[in-house]
Amino acid sequence: MEHGVLLVRGRRERVIRWVRRGTLPVCIVPSAGPGPAPRPPARHQASVQHLASGRGWTALVAAGPSRAMAPYRDGVAMLAAHPLRHDLRPAVGLFVDDGRAVVTCWPGRWRGGARWVVWTPGEGPGPVPGFPLARPTDLARAAGFARDQGAPGAIQDVLADPGGTAEEVLLDLAVLLGLPHAELVRGTSAADLPGAELVTPKDESVRRFDKVVSDEQRLDAEVEEGL
User: Fold this and answer.
1) How far apart are alpha carbons 159 and 153 in whole angstroms?
2) Which residues of the chain fall below pLDDT 70?
3) How do residues 140-188 score in pLDDT, each as one tens digit?
4) What is the residue-wise DSSP string for the chain?
5) Which of 7, 21, 175, 215 is most buried, taking the most CB atoms under 10 A from its CB?
């Protein structure tokens, strides 16, 4: 993956604790706090009742490659796919991968794992093989919209339009959903934003992850040799 941002709920200390237990250096950026409600995207003027802009979110951006062994070195992919603690949910991820927009959402608390949808230029939305599909209602609920606020229809309009670029689609979604730090979907440096903080994983966390990977690879090799 090229770049992107994961937006989570939860207190700063919980976010830092989660990152420290992983394998990836991450730049975390708190939301700026309450502000005026964002306008709907210019390309998709929608009638949506917005929540307060950006409150309660923390943005996470990969600050380099993962420190884990191969094939787990892609920092952005690891951020997108890593299981998320229940106390950091709901969450929304906005990523660019080879010209495509990849959107993930995690439902609140114990409601299951991540859901994914990929938008391809000239084609529109589709599922990510092997993962549950993120529906417009899933994205709206993760962003904090009630059922009667019109968000699912507006999200569907954004994703169904096959024109534009991945960055434009992700920016439209970020503004539509009232998510903070929308500029990060363009690859803007998170380190330059107010309140940004670099958090690195513990060495013991990386060693523990690598041991699990090594054990699995060794077991796979033993199984293949025994067939």
Assistant:
1) 10
2) 32-55, 109-111, 148, 226-227
3) 999 988 776 789 999 999 999 999 999 999 999 999 999 999 899 999 9
4) --EEEEEEES-HHHHHHHHHTSS--EEEEE---S-PPPPPPTTS-------STTTTEEEEEE-S--SSPTT---HHHHHHHS---GGG-SEEEEEEETTEEEEEEE-STTS-S-EEEEEETTTEEEPPTTS-B--HHHHHHHHT--GGGSHHHHHHHHHH---S-HHHHHHHHHHHTT-S-GGGGGT--GGGSTT-EEE---HHHHHHHHHHHHHHHHHHHHHHHH-
5) 7
